Amino acid sequence: MSKDISKFLSLVLRHEPQTIGIALDAGGWVAVDELIAKARLAGRDIDDARLRAVVAESDKQRFTLSEDGLRIRAAQGHSVPVDLGLVPIAPPDILYHGTAVTVLEAILREGLLPQGRQKVHLSADSTTAGKVGQRHGKPVVLTVAAGQMQADGLVFWQAENGVWLTDAVPSAYLSQP
Question: Domain range holding 54?
Answer without folding.
Answer: 2-74
